[in-house]
Each structure stands twice: as C-alpha cells, then as structure tokens.
Amino acid sequence: MPSVGENIPHDSAATHVTGRSPFIDDYPPAHGELFVDFVGSPVAHGRIRSIDVTAARQVAGIVGVYTCDDVPGHNDYGPIVKDDRVLVDEVARYIGEPIVILAGESRAALDAAKRLVKLDVERLEPILSIERAIAEQSFLGVERKIECGDVDGALAAAEHRISGTLEIGGQEHFYFESQAAVAYPEERDGLVVYSSTQHTTEVQSVVAEVCGLPLHRVTCICRRMGGAFGGKETQAAHTAAMAALVARLTGRPARCVLERDIDMAVTGKRHPFKAWYETGFTGSGRITAHVVRLVSDGGCSTDLSPSVLERAMLHSDNAYYLANVRITARIAKTNFPSNTAFRGFGGPQGVAVIENVMEEIAHVLGKDALDVRRVNLYDGPGRDVAPYGQIVRNNVLPALVDQLRATSDYDRRRAAIDAANRADEGTLRDGFLRGLAMTMVKFGISFTKRTLNQANALVNVYLDGTVLVSTGATEMGQGVNTRIRQLVADDLGIDYDGVFVGPTNTDKNNNTSPTAASSGTDLNGAAALDATSRIKQRLAEFAAGLFADASAGVPPSADEVVFADGYAFDRRNPLRRIAWKELVPKAYFERVNLGERGFYATPGVEFNRETGKGHPFFYFTNGAAAAEVAIDRLTGEMRVERVDLLMDIGMPINPGIDRGQIVGGFLQGMGWVTTEELKYDAEGKLLSYSPTTYKIPNISDLPAVFNVDIFPNPDNDVSLKQSKAVGEPPLLLGLCAWSAVKNALRYAAGAAPPPLSLPATGEEILLRLTALEAGTDLPDGGRSVAAVVARSDP
User: Fold this and answer.
1) Measured between alpha carbons, how far apart are the two ends of the chain, in Å?
2) What confidence tens digit (pLDDT) does each residue in 49-63 have?
3) Which domains does the chain have, with CATH numbers?
4) Among residues 728, 763, 764, 773, which one is catalytic?
5) Rounded to 5 degrees, what are φ and ψ at 582?
6) Residue 560 annotated in active site
7) Is the peptide bond before 28 cis (omega within 30 degrees of 0)?
8) Residue 621: helix, strand or coil by DSSP?
C-alpha cells in the first residue's frame, strides 16, 4: 500500500514518549572525556585590560584554560561575514560573550575554576536600542530597497493617508535541548563532532577553521535535535567549536552542553524590528501607495541578519497586492548577542507591519478589517505581481479566505461582538472587551540565497531488500525523516518499514544546505528520489531481462516494468512478476549497482539584491486564521477563546505530521505576539532568561475552540508530490491573535486609532486601556508607539 498521503507516525514517536531517543547529552561519556564551559563578559561593551587565569589553572581536575591566543586556527568566523568570534580578543560586545574556555574532568572542578578567573574589563558605553543605533549610525551592512510603481505620485494623490510606527519584539527559541556538542579526536588530527545542529556543514566548516584543519579531517554528525526553530542553523557552531577546540588541544573527548539559563542569556533571538510606514488608500480600503522603512536589531555581529532582513522585505506585501510600494531596510548593530534565524526568518516581522496597516485602515474608514483585507488580496491578472516582480501563480487566497469566513461563522460572530462591546460602552473597567480578526499569509518557499537551493542524498539497497537513505536534512522534530522514508518507499514500491533514514553525516552528504526555510523535505526528498530513479532504472532493465527469459511472448522493455506492493512486474501482464526481496539479491549476483547518489537543485529561483527584482521563491504556501479574544478590562489579561485556521499545503505527504506542524507553528506565533517578551535591564542583561521569567504558551493558553483544516488544492503541480512546505507559514498566522487585540482596543478608542506594540502582553494591553480611558497616549520610544492618522481632503 502506498504510504505517501498516509498518517504514518513520526519515526521517533515511540522512542520519544518512552524516553529512549538519545540526544547529545545522553551519549555515554567516553574514556578520558572532559567537560567544557566558559567565562563570559560581565559587561555589554568593554575593553579587556587583563585576564588572570593563574588560580583557575591550579584547581584539581582542571586540564585546560584557554584564551583567544590559544586558538590554533582562526578565531573569527561567520556564515556571511566573519565577524563572530570563538573568544573575545580585545573588546567584548555583549554580556556573557565567551572570553575564557575551561576544560575539566568534572563539572564541580569547572564551577570552582570559573569563580577564580579574574577579568579586568573597562566598561564602554553600549548601544542597547534601535533608536540609539540609528542616532550613532551603528549599522551592519548597507541599506536595501525594493520598489515598484509611482510611489510618491500615488501617495500624494491618495484619498486617505495614515502614517505611524510599529515596534516588534524579539523571541527566544526555547528549544527543549540546549546548544550541545561532543567532540572526539581521531588519528592524524581528525575530529568527529556530534552536534545538535540544523547545519552539519556549517559546524564542520567552523570547527575546521577554528582548529586549523582541512574540511576532510572533520566530520559532523547529527541524529536528531530536541528542537531548534532556527536557533541551531548557525549558532550551534559556537558550542561545537568550543568542544572541538578542547579536543584538539588536549587529545581527549570533550563535551560542551550549555545550561538552560546560560543558553538563553548568550544566544541570539528572533530579530526585534522597528517600522515606520505611510500608506495611501481609497474609501473602500484598497491600498494605492505604501512606504515602509524597516530597521532590525542585528545584535553585535552579522550572522544571518542580511538574509533575515531580506525576507522581511520580501514579505512586507504578505497576501496583498501593492501596485505602488517602497520598502527600505537596514540592520542596527547593538550590544546584544547576535540575533539569528528563527522560524519564519524575518517573514513574520514584515507581515506584522502590513497587518497593522490593515487594522489602521479599517479604523479610519469604520469598516471591518476583514473587508479591507479582502479587497487588497492578490487576485487575478493585473493584481498578481509581487513588488519584486514575481507572478503569484496558483493563487487560492480569495477562495481560501472566503471559505474560512463561512466556516468560522465570522460575520455572525462579528455582529455579536459589536453588540457586546457596545453594551459595555462607558464602563471601561467592567467586564470583558472582545475582539475578532482574520489574517492571511502568502509565504515564499525557497532560500533567498540561490546557492542554498540544492541537496544531495545517498541511497543504498542491501541484499535483504532493505534501504538506507542518507541526506543533508536534519531532524529536529518536524518529521523530515518520516516524509523522506515515505517518498522513497513509495518510489521503490516497498513497505515503509523497509526504509530507514540514517543520521545526518558530512561523511555521506557533503556541502549540505541548512535544514531551514521550510525546504527540508522539498530539497532532500527530491534528491533521494533522484537517486532511487536511477536504482529503479537499473533494476527495471535487469527485471525486464528476467521476464524476457521466462516469456513466450513479446518481452517487456525496462519502461514497462513497474515497482509496487513489494514486487517488480510487467505493466502489460501483472502476473509476470518477481518479489523485491528476490530481485535485489539476483541483481547483486549479476553485479548490478544497488547504491546511488542523488542531487536536486531548485529550478528557476533567482533574486537581484541590487535591483530588488527577481523570482526568489519556487512557490507560495497560503493560509488564513481567525482569532477571537477576550480582554479583562480591569487587569489587561487576555485569553484567546477561539481560533479557526485553514491552510493550503497542496497534497500533504503526511497529513498527521503536517497538522502537527500547523498547530505547533501557530501556537509559537501566537506566543510571539502575546506573551513572549524579552526583558533587559539598563546594562543590557537579559532578565527573562529562564522558564520562570519567559512565558511561552502552555496548555492553558490553547484556545478552547481550535478548528484546523486543510484547503484542498490538487492543482499545485510545482512542488514535490504536489505537497507544499508547512514548517514556517502557520507561525505567521499567529498574528491574528495580535490583530484581534488591536481590534478589541478599537472599540475603546473612540476617535483615536489604537496603537499597539508587539507582543501584546497583559501589561501592554493594560497600559493602552489606561491611556485610552484617560484620553491620553503613551509616549513614543521603548515599547510604546503612537500611530498618527492624517486624512487628506475629500
């Protein structure tokens, strides 16, 4: 029976729930293994005057204490610009930035030695906000622009205009397994590194650079991760480099596993953004001109910030056609840990701005925001070209939105909320304020860096008929290995259990792309099928020969041999068949090659960063979600009472796993926009550095009514097996909860539009309610943003 399209359980489900899935720190210690830790900067910005490690070296059980002078290779590294560092050389750039690495035979020895490291650091003035970075012209990279149409002319002629600012907070990845790596020295200076990483090639490359080794002497292996969400695309390399450095210098295995609180304090987050916008629109709410300026907080170094910013720009239209638009963007350099990839990769921040604008337009015109969104959707010819020039093909957004409007009973519920909120007018401190909003998503699938849109796979068929697949995809819980097993099993016509996907290993899969951009299955699954196609061709030719020898009629050609249900058979005469498990050893006996390497490169993707034009995405995944919220007028506490969500993900390879991705992604997005707030003190120290102070959604935050459905789209004929990527797009739909809060505040706003920063925490909501009640507004700056509305003359 074919397995593609079936709800086959995640291949690690049983071992996960029984506690038998090994993660990095579950690997038993090797003989002579050392523990690795570090001492970080006490200030966000400071010049190192001196480092005294004399006393630390004397602690019993301490084997090594290292500074930047001990790095045998390059101290600097980075995926785009080499401005990250293993250890601080002269100037520390954020609190906790590693200055000294320690290696000990016990964690107790490490703790004692860390307390004895003496640092003399001259405090320098840090930059701790986007506004301060702009004032001091502290940036990473150059300004980028995407523009189309006559923006200035259309804005000047607009019937209505609004302008304002929006502050968008960051987000902690909060993966279950912290950053972790174990490095084992091998003969002839080789290193094998087991890393919790989304990008084995990145770890291999950084370790080789830091340790002064050629790439072929470093192997990186990843069996699975306990979550990642983008946080292990590049930043797993630092932990791996520290472990590898110790293994290289001592000749002993070395383990570096960050404690949860330390991990949260020293690793990068989702980029905070600040946006300035000005928008012109008609009386129906249709946007005629849109200008937006984005500034992201990149932290202290480049990391992936240019690519994140680029995707934010490319998603600043979201699901809406913008004929005249100018998007400019730049990265602020601040004294925080370098911000990095996060599920959605800049897309959520770009989408947040345009969704905020939709709510603002609705308020100005006195319309339902869904009607404003609907009139602006990408539609047929003439309204199907993105600002960067790509045609939005196979666009199901209008039909998808209309379907969800009907199935969610949106219009009846809107009328009920209108009536309930009007009944409470004049009693701002009594009862609950309710809001309802539906937002959409059009998420581009592909890496915007063309080079990364490639993958390779190794497929080996063994004599018993079982199959081992190796790809560059890394399993972080999203089910990529399960999907690849389904694809390969169906292509070879064998049972799902006859296929196994091995650990990701740079020995088997070289020069891999990260498992990111929602493209893991698309790229690596296609590469695996490229390999199986050639294995099948050889076996089909061999089987055709067997059938010819046994045939009294016209012998079949290889093209007429079909693989299905565990057999190879003649399409014209299905009774002429041979079992797969019989065919394979026979083929081996006759020296038929039963292994193959596959390769895939996404066709037709390109983007010119200088002109802001191109075709950066292979296709788009679409969706819509409606959220209803209730806000306690007295405390500002908010709960999401109902969510209706509809996704266009083509023809799912595994509906059950895809549904899990939809639900999990949405809730993670909902957390970003409502409860997950990063708090820092005046010196740049993270205060919300543990599960007790950083609030991700828990089971009580799950909407009491949560309807999830998949939009039928059999016309999707571009991507792998007609499926669509599903990892990131649902996260952006979490913005419907934030929009619903903004909608609720609109009822209490009177004539003034309700500004709202993101996330809309209980504190943020209460501050807005209090200000609205008093007839005042919160000052600009910090997390408080004042939106300005200016109507042109009719």
Assistant:
1) 66
2) 999 999 999 999 999
3) 30-126+173-266 (3.30.365.10), 273-447+609-790 (3.30.365.10), 454-601 (3.30.365.10)
4) 728
5) -90, -35
6) no
7) no
8) strand
